[in-house]
Amino acid sequence: MSALQRKKSLFRFFGRKRQSHSARLPADCLYDIFNLLKDDIKSLHSCILVNRLWCETAIPYLWSHPFKRSTPPAPSLINILVACLSDNEKSVLIQNGIKISSQLKKSPTFDYAAFIPNLGLESLYSSVQNWTMRQSVKRRSSISSQCVSEINNNALSVYYALCRLFFGNNSTITSLKLDRPTKLSSPVMDDNLGVDLSLQNIKNLTIRYTSDQFLFDPLLKQAETIESLSVIKSSEAGLRNFEDLQYLSSLIFAQSKLRSFSLMCYDTVNGFSPSVLTPLASQADTLVSLNLHGIPFPGDSSIHALTICTNLEELDIRRCTNGPGCQLDQILLADFPNLRKVKIVESSILWGHLISSIIQKNPIDLEEVHYHPWEDEEHDSLSISIIQSITKYQPKLKKFGIALGADEVPSLIEIFNAPGCKLESLSLFSLGKQECDLDKIWPELGKHLPNTLKHLNIWIFIGARPMNLFLKNTKVDLDSLYIDSWFEDYSHPPYINVLCDYLKDRPIDMANFFTPILN
Domain-by-domain residue ranges, the chain? Predict the structure, then answer.
């Protein structure tokens, strides 16, 4: 039974019962029910009104991502959190000129801050700044530049008070994003703020900016069981972008349960050095997911830092290059016996050979292969090799992305027709050369789409007529279809006619249907 079917069954059940009966359900049953309703904000709000038990059980679900959902709206949300502050914290804010109403001086019904496991500091600060601005506008007819400076200072005071609330001794924060951008010219908070903070429960950590430097030291000393670590280096000039490789190295070495590591660099001028991968060897026993974007591999030592992580189940390489010091033999020796998903996107030829090698060594467990190369002849031949390897070794793929030319279509059809084909998502990319022959092949390709296919993404130019024949020949009911060359005009003839003719009377919103589904 799907989640939607279970939800409908619950509504039917409660529709037949009187309120007095439904209210007697034990708390553990309510937890199961609300877990199904966790994304249905309207229903959760209704549950709060039943009785205290239902309210106490539903509130944590409503507050699991409060800033993301913005329910209640951001200013009301900060009102509630300010009310959760200690009397001493409120007194300090009042002394700093921040007005706190008599209603907010009372303790709230619940300790709402304790219900929040996920916190993004950019969302928190933006909400606080909005709240502070509204408080100031109520007291002033106009806002001068001096007032703006005062508002910003007040916003920081409230922000740091809430940080102390969230990271107190009983902190429940398990997921943290250090994503608040500030300019290099702006002042940095005194590190003393982080002396008594508690961050030992952090399991998921994202680092993008160093604006909140006061959290870095307690993170390094306390957060030793991080399971997912994501580091992003932005290309935005003038901001406090993260680039402290020594700190990152120490943080990785300190971990005992790291399962997922993502390192993304969008700064093409001052990127990460290859040594950034060296600490990964310390996590080889636990690491199962690795995502690298814009990381250079100048020599075999940097390759070795990756290939030593033999327990990987997911590998995602995007825009990564290798230097002349990287030998093909080194990457071909790599063995990832547990790998289920591999994605190589616009990276050097070395990584394409890795995919081909993985298919040969581990065809049984592979569920997803995605190869989107740069458009050149060398990568074209490798795309052919990958398709042929899949045809030969027959991994039971659920998701497949490949650059396609007319010559590879027969092999692709062979993959579709293989016994036990389980393909659910297919993405086709251009080889970068004019493929006139593909127009003749699309109708035939449509006949062979596997009946398990739900999502089709096409980054190859295709006209309305061949696509119409392709869709007429297929017996598959796709949940989504995306054709990149139609993106700007898909809602106009002749493209909309082709799509409507395929969907017929199916009750699907066209905007939801014509969208790329890659995950």
Answer: 1-62, 393-519
